[in-house]
């Protein structure tokens, strides 16, 4: 895949501290690719910049964390303008999901690689707002919400692990009513994840077997309790990619989750609170550049 023009959107405040400008220049110097760059600011989001670039460049390359990546994907969704990901954040889950190298110089090489391909991936819509990775309620949401910036800057991804240990102990099961493609389930759970992507950002582990970002389906994964045995079974099932009775797993196009009281949840990087969450898949909505053999 050869591009003549690439526009970079760089978040200068994202997790990695490295001379990204000089890296881009070094890698693209002799490539024949004409490139430009815009920088996000606190009040000018990656989405604002991406929207203005639709139709004005052949490829938008985002350097930032999953927050920026989701913003750009949401802005470009359905526009036909493709995007590339240069992982600049802490976890970089979407890059891991797509097999994009974590190292900046290697990820930049993909932009000029003849074998690189565009992959058409699904997105989700949560109460009308597009998302790329997942919606988390319960333990998984608390884990992300409580891993603060300072800790992430100091120890990177380990911050999520440390906060996980704290939040798992305090988790209280909540009663939910789930409507999954029209079928109703009354369930008690300490964690519900509605996910588009399998990768969790921890090594190459997927949350459950069979999750695909291109299958036109969302995966609803429910953990009923936080007993040691259930947690071990859930972790074992992620490691070995097999099924377990500790975890309920549905695949669907549409799910509505109701609870009696407002629940905090996290949709990609955004924290919210609601009693009812309606989620549906938007199949084949954004083209993302992936390295050779990752399509
Ligand atoms: N110039 C800037 N100064 C400060 N914050 C910024 C700037 N540009 C963008 N942001 C903020 O950065 C956040 C998005 O960060 P992004 O997801 O790219 O990186 P990250 O936080 O390192 O990722 P991760 O979640 O993996 O740690 C948004 O909240 C956005 O408002």
What's the short story on this structure?
This protein has about 300 residues and is of the alpha+beta class. The protein has helices at about 20-30, 45-55, 65-75, 95, 105-110, 140-145, 150-155, 160-170, 230-240, and strands at about 5-10, 35-40, 60-65, 85, 115-125, 130, 135-140, 175-180, 185-190, 190-195, 220-225, 245-250, 255-265, 270-290. It has two domains: about 5-120 and about 285-290, 3-Layer(aba) Sandwich (Rossmann fold), CATH 3.40.50; about 130-285, Tumour Suppressor Smad4, CATH 2.60.200.40.
Would you mind describing this structure in some detail?
With 295 residues, this protein is α+β, with helices and mostly antiparallel strands. The chain is 28% helix and 36% strand. α2 runs parallel beside α3. The two termini are 13 Å apart. Strands 5, 6, 7, 8, 9, 10, 11, 12, 13 and 14 form a ten-stranded antiparallel beta sheet that branches. Strands 2-1-3-4 form a four-stranded parallel beta sheet, with helices on both faces. It is built from nine helices and 14 strands. The radius of gyration is 19 Å and the shape is elongated. It has two domains: 5-122 and 286-290, Probable inorganic polyphosphate/atp-NAD kinase, domain 1 (Rossmann fold); 129-284, Tumour Suppressor Smad4 (Sandwich). The site of adenosine-5'-triphosphate has 18 residues, from α3.
């Amino acid at each position: 895949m050869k591009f003549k023009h690439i526009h970079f959107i760089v978040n200068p405040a994202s997790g990695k501290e490295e001379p990204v400008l000089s890296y881009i220049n070094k890698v693209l110097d002799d490539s024949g690719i004409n490139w430009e760059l815009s920088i996000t600011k606190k009040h000018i989001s990656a989405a604002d910049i991406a929207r203005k670039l639709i139709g004005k460049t052949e490829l938008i390359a985002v350097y930032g964390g999953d927050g920026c990546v989701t913003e750009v994907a949401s802005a470009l969704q359905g526009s036909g303008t493709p995007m590339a990901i240069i992982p600049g954040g802490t976890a970089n889950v979407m890059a891991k999901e797509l097999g994009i190298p974590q190292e900046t110089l290697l990820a930049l090489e993909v932009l000029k690689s003849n074998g690189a391909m565009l992959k058409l991936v699904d997105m989700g819509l949560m109460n009308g707002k597009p998302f790329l990775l997942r919606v988390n309620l319960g333990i998984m949401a608390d884990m992300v919400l409580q891993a603060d910036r300072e800790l992430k800057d100091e120890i990177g991804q380990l911050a999520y692990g440390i906060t996980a240990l704290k939040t798992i102990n305090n988790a209280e099961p909540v009663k939910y009513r789930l409507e999954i493609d029209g079928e109703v389930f009354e369930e008690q759970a300490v964690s519900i994840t509605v996910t588009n992507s399998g990768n969790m950002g921890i090594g190459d582990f997927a949350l459950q077997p069979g999750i695909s970002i291109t299958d036109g389906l969302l995966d609803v994964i429910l953990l009923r309790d936080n007993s040691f045995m259930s947690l071990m079974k859930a972790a074992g099932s992620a490691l070995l990619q097999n099924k377990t009775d500790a975890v309920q797993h549905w695949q669907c196009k549409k799910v509505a989750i109701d609870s009696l009281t407002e629940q905090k949840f996290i949709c990609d990087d955004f924290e919210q609170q609601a009693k009812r969450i309606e989620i549906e898949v938007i199949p084949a909505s954004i083209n993302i550049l992936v390295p050779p053999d990752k399509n």
